[in-house]
Amino acid sequence: MDSSELYHVKQQFILGAYKPLISLALPPESSPDYVPTLVYQARAHLALNDPSAALSLLPTDSEDVTIKATSSLAHYIAAATPPSDENSEAAEAALEELRDLIVEIEGDDLEASERDKWLVRVLAGTAFARSGEVEEALETLGLNEDNRASVEAVALIVQIFLSINRPDLARREYEKCKKWAEDDLLLQLIESTINLVTGKEGYSDCNSFYTEQLANPSLSSTKLLTARGVTRLLRGEVSEAKSDLEEAISQGGADGETVAAYAVAATLRPSKKGEGDEWWSKLTQEFPNHPLVNDVSEKAGLFDEAAAKFNVPSLPTVTV
Amino acid sequence: MSVMLTKFESKSNRVKGLAFHPTQPLLAASLHNGSVQLWNYRMGVLVDRFDEHDGPVRAVAFHPSRQLLCTGGDDYKIKVWDIRPQNRKCLFTLHGHLDYIRTVQFHHEMPWIISTSDDQTIRVWNSTSRNCIAILTGHSHYVMSAQFHPKEDLVVSASMDQTVRVWDISGLRKSTPNTAPGTFDTFDNFSTVKYVLEGHDRGVNYAMFHHTLPLIVSAADDRQIKIWRMSETKAWEVDSCRGHFNNVSAALFHPKHELIVSCGEDKTIRIWDLAKRTAVQTFRREHDRFWALAAHPELNLFAAGHDSGLIVFKLERERPAFAVYGDQVYYVRDKYVRAYDIGSGSDIGLLSVRKFGSPYIPPRTLSFNPAERAVLLTISSDNGLYELTALPKDAVGEVKDSSGDGKRGSGQSAIFVARNRLAILNKATQLIEVRDLSNSVIKTIKAPVQTNEIFYGGTASLILSSTASVVLYDIQQQKTLAEIATPPVKYSVWSADGALVALLSKHTITIASKNFSQHTLIHETIRIKSGAWDDSGVFIYSTLNHVKYTLSQGDHGVICTLDNPVYLTRVKGKTIHCLDRSARPRTITIDPTEFRFKLALMRNNYEEILYIIRTSNLLGQSIIAYLQQKGYPEIALHFVQDKSTRFDLAIECGNLDVALETARAVDRPDCWERLAQAALKQGNHKIVEKAYQQTKNFDRLSFLYLATGSTEKLTKMQKIAEARGDPMSRFHNALFTNDIPARIAVLRDVGLYPLAYLTAKTNGLEELALDILEVAGLSEADIDDVPSFGNSTLKPPPVINKTTDLNWPAVNDAENFFEKALANGALERDEPYVNGIDGAAAGSSALDDWAKDEEVQEDLPPEEGGWDLDADADEAEDQEQEQEQEAEEELGDGITPGVSETALWVRNSPFAGDHAAAGYFETAMQLLHRQFGVTNFAALKPLFLTVYRSSHAYLSPISSLPPLQLHLRRNPEESSPSRFLPVASRTIQSVRAELSDGFRLVSGNKLPEAKAVIRAALQALLLVSVSSDTEGKEWRDTVTLAREYILGVSIELERRRVVEQDPENVKRNLELAAYFTHCQMQPPHMQIALRSAMGNFSKANNHASAAKFARRLIDLNPDPKIVAQARQRVAAGDRNPRNAVEVAYDEFTDFEICAASFTPIYKGSPSVRCPYTDAAYLPEYKGHLDPLTELTEIGLGSSGLPAP
């Protein structure tokens, strides 16, 4: 059982309240919560794509495996975003560090709780998944292992499956997990994520999940607003989605995801002419690495290629 | 209400609080000694107990949907427990109350817990954040209970301050999340007292809302129960129920009926009629005062806690009285006899029996007489009554009541025994009266045994149920025909053909033949509720929690589990018809395969077995165990999926091929060893070889090669041994292959020079021998004392028979009916796996597996399967790596990416817009090209990209992972992947709106802009998907309209160009003005065209034509000013009906306008068309780019808009 402080930290992390989480004061170093809280804060930095902040937070001389794993992940993210050739060596080195850690925690002579070991696997799995090593990530996260005890690992597996269009496998993992972690908040998140992809019952589950969490008085996260906005977008409630996303942006949550979702909503139901394009250019300027931007520019190339296959005849010349 | 059926009772310390689990048969009881018990009242066992509270626990509640329990005690603590069996524990504790906690309750949808305390407050907690989110203050004494309203944002509370209060908590739901825990300043905004109900003279112990009506019931120490009514604005006392003679602890509304249940310290539970406010029934206990009461939310179950334990009881029997005749089920619901037709599903009320016996008790049994269409009912009230009534022929109009023409009498059990006879049992006198339809006694029989119940026993016979036996009794002869010892029989069910009868007791079923000559007895640990015969002669029965079957010889098994008991009426194929606890007809679909299969096995009906194997997904350990036990391992093999079981079975029935296949899959050394042994027994050395190879059993392998005379492989083994650096193995192999130099080499390598020398010597290899000597540092002289041996003749026997190429005659597989049938049938019948509809792939996959085995047998690689024998050491390692790779590939196979949503979109839609949304631009272009002849796509690029980017959203639910791509669907409610379509980012409506913008520009005389807008609309229309034919038509109309406008605008622009650049060319100017009026535009724009034409024509002195335009203009009802102007033109035309300039404009012949040259194409003249807009062109423009839209190639063939 977590102490209630750690419980809140975890809750904030899961629900994406990264900024409030970062601004929390750390417990005293002697507290058993110290390391987990530190790791959560570092991970929150990573989630905000700020690996250097995460690294400055983490002691470099720590023997704790979770701290080591978190810094390796931070190194990896720092080196691999945006992907570039110069940094590929550093990225690969970070991955190797994580691989070593995995080997280390599998050995018996390491003094780390099961929970820490799983956390290391989760962090390593995150890096592997980011680097596109799907199989390695799944293996690290203990797919096919029966004694999995980490909902976070399941969450990662589920998202990996979803990202390769296997909601069936994702759901299977979720069902398995449900047997031993029924009331977990993260499990509810997993379920809602699966439903976001499959659209079960008109996305009603995800909608009520995010609505419920938005009403959670112990934290406020613009990420939840964005998530509900996206859910509503999926549900076809474009104007409601817009209002959620607007609120998220006004509360300072103007991250790539929110802006991208808003651009979609504005294109579908523009409140004034050209609103969609306006937001789209905002997105391309402010978040040039957002996957939607990359995807669309790739598609643009594709378009030109495909269009070039057709012979365009000339306009008729009219002589009257 | 003379019935109060106790279901369960427990002894314990005083029970202060009770709660039913909403779905499982669990009851939580909180005790005065601090313990919380969790009972399974159905099984009667204590499931668990929680002992973490100090002092009495008064409050207990289950979560309505989650596996959570909440308790509150005199230690001021509220605890929330996880009650899942594997981890029952306290999840968290809520601190805050300053005195004893009286009640707790979970909210039905919000994560809220409400609690009341002696500290005079009611608190609401958020169970997610574990914070107190509201404190309701106002009561001036202990708050004894508080409950949420089942639907609205209301709370009702009862207090020792003699009031009942209703609170409005809607503010709580709306309030913005309170981020800082511990700031309670704004509580008063959250909730307000709505009503204060005063009327009780003493403290109030309990109050609750009615489930549906705006009513409140309260129980108080003034010994009264009060009923209150609320409206939107006020609440007032309705009435009181007086009768308790001490404090009333609790009073509940009955969840289903108009009743109130109450209990009190006067040691009674009382039932009240809600409408009449009169006592219906009282249940008294000798010594124990009642403290707590709970009602099950769904079932007819109540629990009451008293000084020394608790009781669970129900108020009425649930088993509906029913009888089945053919496809008709006659049954009683809410005191109406109804007929339910299984075939048609019609369910109609036929007869009211409201006045029969006590109004609160349903009839107990129903017997149906098909000849007279009469029913015979019994009821247990008034010490047993029966009533005989004919059912109306047709249920038209008002349903009549049986009191009119029903014939009644007293008796405990009554049935029809013949068309015109009924038998009535009187338990007290033990007399059975046989009566005719006019209810007069024909005959009286003294029961031969103590009889509690009588059943139909076949023609002129009765089955008498006694305490320890059933008796078959002949009415005519008045004698006992047969007797079977059984526990007391409660119900009997005859099979359709009347050959078998099932006699149901509490825990046993006796299946007897009709003359009781044969019978079997089945024991059940769970209470048996009902049963019905399947058409094939299998008895299906229901217990409290299962539907089961039994064959007549006693084999039985589970078909499915039940959440709640049902009463089976009829079984037809896969459907069980039954009545549920509230006597509503229901059906349950079952899989009858298992019992059909067993039945077929029992009857040796191989065809049927085969059919079942083929078509169903019969699986599971039980059926395998069953088959093994019954001696059919080879059939069992067909059902097993699990590889290791399959291996065991294959070994057991000697099917090596399957064994090999499964051993490969299992790939464990012990399997290979067992396979090797089994194969050795059958003499199949190839499989033995394979198995040895897999386990790397080099010694045995070598010996096997020796035994089969496979010299080449022995040579290879030798190489491998060398590579492995195993001298013993090398030596063996050298010996087996008679390879003397190799043998010597081994000996030399290990330093056994003497042996090496002698081997060389005795085999005549003198030079080698000398060589060895030299290496050993000796000369021949040193070994003089070694005796000289003759040449060795030792060598392996020569290979006579090339056994290695042959498999020895194997033990013939016991090829039985099934093997043959399964092997051949697939070819003959050409319908091998016909179960695709049910999706029952398991059965067929078993067959597939089996078929695969067949193939494997044929192309089993004879030798090189396991590892390459040519391999030298390095390659052996390679092999291992290869195996690893294979393993990885398998892992890879398991997680191949699935079909993406966008691929589904493309698959599901023939519309280019949907393909573009999916990002499949190339297919989208092909579609456009095919459907509309589009060839110039450049202009469509922004459109394509916009459509694409507005169909996808990204979200990263998990930190630091790349975000998930989500896809916006057109219909979020759609659940079938075959109908998933992308969101419609461009719709006909949106394009029409754009078009109207264009039209407005036309009116505003901004023609170039208008043209651009209309052209953009035409481009957008290409990416619109339609969902119906009407929409398709609308789409086409829109395209046509847009075309007319763009054509008109183009003509007008051309005219203006002509006017500007070639002002002399009046003819062309007029022609174009005239053509403009022939574009099918909306009246306002047509007016513009006509006015322009009219003006230009009159200016050119073509008054006749101008007048015609003016007339057309007047027809359009324009502004009066314009009418006046037009009339002038008409008048001028009448005065001067001539045209000064000859123009090519013949309004009397239908014509279209060539959209390139803007010249008329008269009807009948050749033309080519734009494949998209259908605009007409002169033939000479064929093959050019359409100038209107600049998208299509003129004259290209196209298929048009596809059907949705």
Automatic annotation (TrEMBL), chain A:
Record GO terms (molecular function): structural molecule activity
Presence of the UniProt keyword Transport in the record: yes
Keyword terms, alphabetized: Cytoplasm, Cytoplasmic vesicle, ER-Golgi transport, Golgi apparatus, Membrane, Protein transport, Transport
Membrane-spanning parts: none
InterPro entries in the cross-refs: Coatomer_esu, TPR-like_helical_dom_sf
GO biological process per UniProt: endoplasmic reticulum to Golgi vesicle-mediated transport; intra-Golgi vesicle-mediated transport; protein transport; retrograde vesicle-mediated transport, Golgi to endoplasmic reticulum
Coarse class of the protein's main subcellular location: membrane
SUPFAM superfamilies to which the protein is assigned, alphabetical: TPR-like
Protein transport in keyword set: yes
Source organism superkingdom: Eukaryota
GO cellular component: a single term: COPI vesicle coat
Subcellular location: Cytoplasmic vesicle, COPI-coated vesicle membrane; Golgi apparatus membrane
Membrane association type: Peripheral membrane protein
Function in brief: The coatomer is a cytosolic protein complex that binds to dilysine motifs and reversibly associates with Golgi non-clathrin-coated vesicles, which further mediate biosynthetic protein transport from the ER, via the Golgi up to the trans Golgi network. The coatomer complex is required for budding from Golgi membranes, and is essential for the retrograde Golgi-to-ER transport of dilysine-tagged proteins.
Xref: PANTHER family: COATOMER SUBUNIT EPSILON
Family according to the record: Belongs to the COPE family.
Protein name: Coatomer subunit epsilon
High-level lineage: Eukaryota, Fungi, Dikarya, Basidiomycota, Agaricomycotina
TrEMBL record, chain B:
Any one Gene Ontology BP term: endoplasmic reticulum to Golgi vesicle-mediated transport
Record-annotated COPA/B second beta-propeller domain positions: 335-580
Highest taxon listed in the record's lineage: Eukaryota
Location of the Coatomer alpha subunit C-terminal domain: 852-1201
Repeat region (WD), residues: 8-49, 50-84, 94-135, 136-170, 197-238, 241-282
Topological category with respect to the lipid bilayer: Peripheral membrane protein
Major localisation: cytoplasm
A Pfam entry, by short name: COPI_C
Subcellular location: Cytoplasm; Golgi apparatus membrane; Cytoplasmic vesicle, COPI-coated vesicle membrane
SMART domains xref list: WD40
Bilayer-crossing regions: none
Biased composition, class Acidic residues, residue ranges: 855-892
Keywords: Cytoplasm, Cytoplasmic vesicle, ER-Golgi transport, Golgi apparatus, Membrane, Protein transport, Repeat, Transport, WD repeat
GO molecular function annotation: structural molecule activity
Record's GO cellular component terms: COPI vesicle coat; Golgi membrane
Limits of the COPA/B TPR domain: 600-763
Record carries keyword Manganese: no
Region Disordered, annotated ranges: 854-896
Subunit-structure text: Oligomeric complex that consists of at least the alpha, beta, beta', gamma, delta, epsilon and zeta subunits.
Function, as annotated: The coatomer is a cytosolic protein complex that binds to dilysine motifs and reversibly associates with Golgi non-clathrin-coated vesicles, which further mediate biosynthetic protein transport from the ER, via the Golgi up to the trans Golgi network.
Protein name: Coatomer subunit alpha
Protein source organism: Thelephora terrestris
